[in-house]
Amino acid sequence: MEQPGQTVVVTGFGPFGEHAVNASWTAVQELQQLGLGDGVRLHVYEIPVDYRAAQRLVPELWERHSPQLVVHVGVSGLASSVTLESCGHNSGYCRPDNRDFSPCSGCCVDGGPDCLSSVIDMDAVCCRLAARGLDVALSTSQDAGRFLCDFTYFLSLLQGCGRAAFVHVPPVGRPYSARQLGLALRAVVLEMLAQLGPPAPRAS
Q1: Cα separation of 104 and 36, whole Å?
Q2: Which of 8, 9, 12 is nearest to 168 (CA)?
Q3: Band of pLDDT at residue 198, cut at 50, 70 and 90
Q4: Is 30 one of the annotated active-site residues of the chain?
Q5: Domain interval for residue 188
Q6: What pLDDT score does 146 carry?
Q7: What is the CATH number of the domain that holds 170?
Q8: Residue 202 lies in a domain
Q9: What are the recorded Gene Ontology BP terms (predicted)?
Q10: Taking the model in full, what pTM does it have?
């Protein structure tokens, strides 16, 4: 387990459906190349579009890295802006994943709360970045879609006591390049870290 500090985990998703190359993973790889500065340890992972894999991987990432923040990134074919999701939902998961599986109960965590919100103020992140003249449009949402995106986000919010975020990106070229998406992610993650403030010191 890593020492507490400015440690951030960012994930993208693997291929599914019409997205043979998932723009979320492309954007995360761009972010990895850019980095988050010398004071931040960045770890990136690709999550399969697989409910059972997500249920296994998300807790492992929190346990392995003890991050200050986990940011999950997904693609939305309907999006024309970079969208910051405010909350994750526990139920409504009927759409089959890449292995043709969906939870029998339709729930992420049986008996869990209906909805969990991030400790990050997504509206504030959007406002602050818009004031800086970011060349990518930003928006917020309270519905991450009841598929792997929402499912993974709920798991992470539960595991991290709200210290998680979800960002939907449009497909590459509709209208933004991979580089623009990577730069936008970098700005978003750094603003989220600034909002969280310095990590709490380890108790002796």
Answers
A1: 40
A2: 12
A3: confident
A4: no
A5: 7-196
A6: 97
A7: 3.40.630.20
A8: no
A9: proteolysis
A10: 0.94
